[in-house]
């Protein structure tokens, strides 16, 4: 049996060597690629039968590794084919450069997949769906920014290594950066925003002034951090608009982060009422409203006379705490609405009023009138 196989193999080689060189080389290249693809299918099938693909993480790992494995086998097969194929030195050099670039691309691709799998494995124990997700948001933000920076660095290094494998491109790059200082300066100036944002991304990943799902207030807008990339941040505003801000903004300019240490917030409600307002009764009503609301977290509820203005009104400030910024906003609206309704029903005279005094003057042809004062009360709109 072995003799028959050896004889058939020898006949195939003899037949190939009788063909033109270009046709023999083409057959060998196509055959090498087909053998690599078949071998790849056998390996994937064996891994599936051994490990199974029912688990989603195993299936995801197999899906991501298919491409690099297929490319690795093709590069290996072609590198073996080039050594025995009847091609000239020039063609062999071209094939060698192509295989070098393919191998460098394979390494970069593998590094990108390894970074992605490593970040997913690290973040497996954190969940953003938890009510108190401060720690999860911290790690997700940190890993996401560092992974984006690592991906950028891997791509740059892969492209640079691929260019260095060609003598012409390598010499051109060396001469360009060595002799054209003005061009290098222009490139550096043009790349300054990108570099600034990359450095800001590393600073944000370490110091973390913002995280994913943080509630921030900047440029007069209120929203949550929806996405952090290597160059910009996407903020989902309260009305579902998106504000795109450069990453360096959060390093160079002040902004408000309402969930920096914890998601709980204290919301304030201001009321402007008449001096006759029964503050103690209103304070009792505030406590009743807070206790009945599921939005209140049971920690802070205060009503204070914060100011007495010149336009005959008193400023009352109510403070209430909630578990999150959206809950604090809804709680403020609920408390404001119910306190105003309470004043309208129970103490309408405590609502803001404007007072005007009219004094009658004596007419020349009439007897003097006894002075009197008319006071009209008008409710404020």
Automatic annotation (TrEMBL):
Q: What Pfam families does the record point to?
A: MS_channel_2nd (PF00924)
Task: Give the region (Disordered) as residue ranges.
Answer: 357-381
Q: Which UniProt keywords apply?
A: Membrane, Transmembrane, Transmembrane helix
Name its cellular compartments: Membrane
Q: What is its main location?
A: membrane
Q: Which residues form the Mechanosensitive ion channel MscS domain?
A: 194-260
* Transmembrane domains' residue ranges: 22-47, 68-86, 98-123, 144-166, 172-191
Which cellular component, as a GO term, is one annotated location? membrane
A GO MF annotation of the entry reads: mechanosensitive monoatomic ion channel activity
Known InterPro entries for this protein?
LSM_dom_sf, MscS_beta-dom_sf, MscS_channel_2nd
> What is the designated name of this protein?
Mechanosensitive ion channel MscS domain-containing protein
State the organism named in the record. Answer: Afipia broomeae ATCC 49717
Q: What is the lineage of its organism?
A: Bacteria, Pseudomonadati, Pseudomonadota, Alphaproteobacteria, Hyphomicrobiales
